[in-house]
């Protein structure tokens, strides 16, 4: 479990991290540089899931050696599925995504982060997230270096 005390807002206790794949931890189907060591460090405190429509069909193979569980739903309903999976988890849930199909999940998670990487991000997602960052490494570092998150979310 990861707990971050946010001044004026109280403790944010997280047990799970849900990640989108393409556009979030991967670009053109390949896991981005710097993601692996950060996920390995976070896996000591969080249960990590990758939930994806898997546009390129590579998520399971590319995540095989990462400390994550991959759930693939190649369907137009993946947005609703992501939200359902987030609600089904016990304990605090953080999510990181970049697409339209991450909106419903972001609405139900205790912490939601939008990544505005090389693939871009869905502009509508921004108003559903607690934090927006330029890269996945920056997003993961918010959890690894909680003072960054504390400074951004304090009242």
Description:
- This protein has 7 helices and 10 strands.
- It has helices at 35-42, 59-62, 78-88, 103-108, 123-126, 136-144, 146-153, and strands at residues 2-6, 10-14, 16-19, 26-27, 30-31, 47-52, 69-72, 93-97, 111-115, 131-133.
- The strands form 3 sheets. Strands 7-6-3-8-9-10 form a 6-stranded parallel sheet, with helices on both faces.
- Strand 4 and strand 5 form a beta hairpin.
- Helix 1 (35-42) packs parallel to helix 6 (136-144) and helix 6 (136-144) packs across helix 7.
Radius of gyration: 14 Å
Strand content: 25-35%
What structural class do helix, strand and pairing data support? alpha/beta
Please outline the major beta sheet.
6 strands, parallel
Produce the secondary structure layout.
Blueprint: E1 2-6, E2 10-14, E3 16-19, E4 26-27, E5 30-31, H1 35-42, E6 47-52, H2 59-62, E7 69-72, H3 78-88, E8 93-97, H4 103-108, E9 111-115, H5 123-126, E10 131-133, H6 136-144, H7 146-153
Parallel strand pairs: 3-6, 3-8, 6-7, 8-9, 9-10
Antiparallel strand pairs: 1-2, 4-5
